[in-house]
Description:
19% strand; flat; 5-stranded mixed beta sheet; 7-stranded mixed beta sheet; single chain; alpha/beta; Ubiquitin-like (UB roll); 13 helices
Amino acid sequence: MIKIGLAGKPNGGKSxxxxxxxxxxVEIASYPFTTIDANHGIAFARSVCPCVxxxxxxxxxxxxxxxxxxxxxxxxxxxxxxxxxxxxxxxxLDNLRQADVIIDVVDASGSTDEGxxxxxxxxxxxxxxxxxxxxxxSMWFYGxxxxxxxxxxxxxxxxxxKVLAEKLAGLGVSEQAIKRxxxxxxxPEKTSSWKEDDLRLFSETVIKRSKPIIIxxxxxxxxxxxxxxxxxxxxxxxxxxxxxxxAGELALRMxxxxxxxxxxxxxxxxxxxxxxxINKKQLDALEYIKNMMKEKGGTGVQNVINTAVFDLLKMIVxxxxxxxxxxxxxxxxxxxxxxxxxxxxxAKDLAYQVHSDIGDGFLFAIDARKxxxxxxxxxxxxxxxxxxxxxx
Length: 392
């Protein structure tokens, strides 16, 4: 399962983002280091379900949207010099080893300083937060790469980049990512000639390739417009930036859970079911959120997750079935499973995702829509419904 890591300084809204995405029970408070141990929960990527084209609906989607599970990890807050062990840095960085993509939850309102302490709204520059978190992640990689570098670089000369790939395997860095990072930076192929600055540049580049980062500019409802504009302009420097209100999303998710409203995560609006069950304070809060969503186009939380999964990680959703005529499993359930696979994955990759035995015995696949037979090297496309035929 894809793993999404939540990074950010203490008290920036990270745990609120986590709870609004997973509805897991976590402690949320307006003081630093509320999160000490990593929280794990299940969030969901939203995709249009193929059953909208079918007479019989699948029963696994909401209003035609399928929500595919991903793991989310909320780790301890990051402070400057975390890579040196400050704050809860070592624990934070170790937990991020597992992440495939990182959501950097930034306090766009500037109402907390770099240590997570409450300050006047707009008095702390959120761009500093973006810079120091990226620097800490880069320095974390640098520290690992630099360790025993003389011996490693000599071994690379004789055995190739697989040596460095093995060293960084625990961080989720592939040999391909290493080679592309060297190409991007135009560093000398002879790694033994790399200086300190070369190692730092390589570390900065390889982490972006192996753990892409998206910025959730949080607390957008109270953030000064100047802050939001400056954060959005980071797009010009290659950052993905999405404005969010994790607190607004959490309020909607809890209201929907209690049947106060109809709301599907990712929608730009919601409907109050029965205002007689809601007190004035709750009604005023929902009205505030509704106006914010109208102005901003939603709370942004689901958009961040979708962008991380589909744009940064380049995943697609594929639906394996046993009966290609009815698009069901053996029990007659319509489109019971939805799998996330890397764009470019083949039919045989899907077979292995279903079960290793099915992959080992792969014979061919069938496109359920076109009733067309497909070979093992057929490249899967978004929202395809596929039957796998296997000897096992």
